[in-house]
Amino acid sequence: MASSNVSSASSSSPVLAGKVAFVTGGSRGIGAAIVRRLARDGAAVAFSYASSGAPADELVRTIEAEGGRALALKIDSADADALKAGIDRAAGHFGGRIDILVNNAGVLHLGPVEQFSLADFDRTIAVNVRAVFVAIQAALAHMGTGGRIVNISSTNAERMPFAGGSVYAMSKSALTGLVQGLARDLGPRGITVNNVQPGPVDTDMNPASGPMAATMHGFMAIGRHGHADEIAGMVAYLASPEAAFVTGAGLNIDGGFAA
């Protein structure tokens, strides 16, 4: 009986109690769902936002009202110095550590290759690829054994079935090589690194009622948009102790888009 009681008491603690997380692009959509889920699971969560100040402040208030801890920081992920400084600030604010890094910030520029501007190309690489590397470097300075790094990639890293998405798909495919290499680099330190690869998700950037919805659903085994909370659930799993043996992976959560 004594053993059972200890187990019960232990299991009642939030799975991420005492952990500190940093989420880039956390004020809206998938990012906000991830911030809410990690906070609900017990982590103190800092998150960045580029322009959505009001939603960011409201998210902090909501988490704090529920007894959690949160910090919102205005950062353009393309600004490497600002991103590094923000991660350092978050670590200092929450006791000098980062246990979980979620690279969610991203941009989507579509268009025919003949008309695709170098400015849009450079912005795509700066936010979708370089910022991921910058954030990982910065977070590793505060991350110990058992750390978790999760990048929000895309099912388009594996399948781009329509025209105009070549640069976006390339930027997400780049994360596959990065994660596979980093898994080797960081495994000896007990740090896992993985990609979560969503398909169409119902957010203001890609609404389920949008003009491309029916076309996208036609490519899928489950013909609907995903929900942001579903993506957050997979991130929460990868951030948890249960996922200690998962690293170097690209995990599709796409309704069969890439099947």
Automatic annotation (TrEMBL):
Segments forming domain Ketoreductase: 19-199
Keywords, comma-separated and alphabetical: Oxidoreductase
GO molecular function terms listed in the Swiss-Prot or TrEMBL record: oxidoreductase activity
This protein's record includes keyword Protease: no
Short name of one Pfam family: adh_short_C2
Protein family membership: Belongs to the short-chain dehydrogenases/reductases (SDR) family.
PANTHER family: OXIDOREDUCTASE, SHORT-CHAIN DEHYDROGENASE/REDUCTASE FAMILY (AFU_ORTHOLOGUE AFUA_5G02870), SHORT-CHAIN DEHYDROGENASE_REDUCTASE FAMILY PROTEIN
Protein name listed in UniProt: Oxidoreductase
Source organism per UniProt: Variovorax paradoxus
Lineage of source species: Bacteria, Pseudomonadati, Pseudomonadota, Betaproteobacteria, Burkholderiales
